[in-house]
Amino acid sequence: MTESSDAGASMASKIGNLRLASDIDINDHIDLSGKPCRVIDLYTKRGLCHLHTINILTGYFVRRIVPISTEFVLTGISYKDDSVTLLHHSGAYTRDDIFLPENENLRTMMVDGFNDDKRVIVGIVTSLGQDAVYAVDVYQTGSANDSDFVAKNVGF
Question: Can you give the residue ranges of the Translation initiation factor 5A C-terminal domain (predicted)?
Fold first, then answer.
């Protein structure tokens, strides 16, 4: 067996990638508010991911509570700049700063579902100050019951 001289560089490359909070494991290296950290403990409770980390530059303990994801209802698509208008599932607010995903499967499901007057539920994940669509569920118009479920796709 040969030894590698990368000194953990392959683990550090995960810092720049957009990942779901649920995909983070103990001993992963992540970026929290611009601080490179190593995860020493994590758990999920009530839809939130509790991260216990150590800043690898200072050695200080850093705690963060982040949502696993947020769901929105697709209410509009601007084909001019590929932006979408989303209504939060609680109906409390809308967002128009999200763009159609580069993933062709997710993009096609969103556009086709919207054009066919289906109810499109979009999962948004936030990491490193960026938001991205990571999941799309399509339902028949009027409800989000399992019996009216049409299609689902998850991925970046």
Answer: 71-135
